[in-house]
């Protein structure tokens, strides 16, 4: 998956916003909460996963616990261009849904997610 495909997949999700934080990190949020992050120069990305997906992906070696966010079940993938675009798009949808589900009902309604 290219950075451009990653960016388009994140921005296509309902209520998704994009910010550049911490210098050059591209952060994607829903309702003000992060669901994915990458750097335009970096080859990798991080995203939120369910408890089970976190265990499977990190124990299998496909990804690794994301620095600073592992306790929240974020997984880091170091080589975005080598990953299947459809699989990454599915992961991004799941990450978005996990984060959106934790938003207050009022916010979900405002974003058209309820």
Summarize this structure briefly.
With 114 residues, the protein is α+β, with helices and mostly antiparallel strands. Helix content is 36%, strand content 25%.
Strand order of the largest sheet: 1-2-3-4-6-5
Largest beta-sheet characterization:
6 strands, antiparallel
The percentage of residues in β strands lies in 25-35%
Gyration radius over CA: 13 Å
C-alpha termini separation: 30 Å
Count of helical segments?
A: 4
Percent in helix = 25-40%
CATH fold-type name: Aspartate Aminotransferase, domain 1
Overall geometry comes to globular
Describe this structure in words.
The protein is α+β, with helices and mostly antiparallel strands. It has a single domain, classed as Alpha-Beta Complex (Aspartate Aminotransferase, domain 1), CATH 3.90.1150.30. Helices cover 36% and strands 25% of the residues. The protein has 4 helices and 6 strands; from the N terminus they run αββββαββαα. The chain has a 6-stranded antiparallel β-sheet. A hairpin with an 8-residue loop joins β5 (64-65) and β6. α1 (3-11) runs parallel beside α3. The chain is globular and about 40 Å long. The mean pLDDT is 94.
Q: Secondary structure elements and their pairing?
A:
Elements: H1 3-11, E1 16-21, E2 25-30, E3 33-39, E4 45-48, H2 51-59, E5 64-65, E6 74-77, H3 85-101, H4 105-110
Antiparallel strand pairs: 1-2, 2-3, 3-4, 4-6, 5-6
Helix pairs in contact: 1-3
Keywords:
114 residues; alpha+beta; Aspartate Aminotransferase, domain 1; six-stranded antiparallel beta sheet; 36% helix
């Amino acid at each position: 998956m290219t950075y451009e495909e990653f960016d388009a997949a994140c921005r296509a999700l309902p209520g998704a916003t994009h910010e550049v934080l911490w210098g050059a990190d591209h952060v994607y949020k829903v309702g003000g909460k992060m669901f994915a992050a990458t750097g335009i120069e970096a080859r990798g990305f991080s995203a939120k996963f369910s408890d089970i997906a976190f265990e499977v992906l990190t124990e299998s070696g496909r990804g690794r616990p994301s620095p600073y966010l592992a306790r929240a079940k974020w997984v880091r993938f170091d080589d975005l261009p080598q990953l299947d675009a459809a699989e990454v798009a599915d992961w991004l949808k799941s990450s978005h849904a996990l984060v959106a589900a934790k938003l207050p009902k009022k916010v979900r309604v405002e974003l058209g997610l309820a």
